[in-house]
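Standup notes
- DV: blocked on the single-chain target, sequence here:
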Amino acid sequence: MKKILATAFLVALSTQSCTQETTLKAGDDTAADGRLVFSTSLDHDKTRGTGGQTRSAAMTDAAAMASAGGFKVWAVSHDEPWAETPDTKTAILDGVTVTGNQSGTVWSYDDPVEWPDGRYVSFFAIAPASVAVDGSATAGTLSTSYTVDPDPADQTDLVFAHPVYDRTGSTYSAGRPLTLNFGHALSRIVFTGIILNESGSDPRTVKVTGITLDGLYDSGTADLDVPIEWTLSGTASASYSLSRGEGELVDVALSTAAPVSLIPSDGYLFLVPQSLERAAGAEPTMSVTLEISDQEGLNPQTIVAPARSLFSPSEWLAGKSYEYRVIVDGDDVRIVGAAMADLTLEPWKVSVYINPVVMVQGNPDKNAAKFGAAI
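- DV (later): unblocked, structure below
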């Protein structure tokens, strides 16, 4: 008698280094009629609404993955171990979407399949399930040609499963779950801000009202494999702008006490990993718009700090998070990048500080001297 294929998936969301992992604990029960049952128990959902739609934050738990539309899975049956290039391969799950309820505790897919007798099964998966995938699972050539949404409010996380090779039905009897470990395929960008002042106070009210990253690649192709490697496509001409008016930046005054987040709790940018050093053409840049008011928050002035090159770190890597910090330091205006630590950091832990800062208010001559132009 054939066993129902994978009575449950145990899904783990991690980065390609596997140094940190959030486990989706799957149930081990099978429905009485033999249907495949997914049962997960995890942390709370992380979503935010944008114009009536729901944007997924970084997929770190089952609820977030369910909110993003679930995952898409391929299962290939073969007669010999995958590494021995078996002659006969059959896709028994061919890009099937597995969806979950809002809390990510119940998962299901249509037309459950059975473990084949006397054959191996290998698995590939991607989330969100809506992402287009090219190639053939039986040939081991699955890949995605991905373009980041130009609107930051519509960007989502993207994760690939570590391929699971050579599983057999006899191993997964009695409802033992299959484990899928997902690695983050994009780079996550966050923004913070602080005022530096030796006296510990600043009479001005300073807010960041706009941030623009320019001169970036927005698309590339990557195999559904790990480590995740991207081949960039197109030209480095993409621009991403966040503004307070659109709700992509929070309305918060910078403090001298500690950095404050400039974005909503799930307002990250998810961008294609890429080198920030260009052999030819313009380098990627960051520019910042500041609103500076007096001590009472009156008489606001808008200051646009000139765009400066993003030169540190020199590369965005898949599965890493990069923090860009706006530092207001007296009347000096500069943009300087520095990594908080070396780039062998834990997943989602890279920090980069950028210092645009404030021009002297009411002194156009001094400002002109700084930038070589009247302001």
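- Follow-up: The helical segments are 62-67, 364-371.
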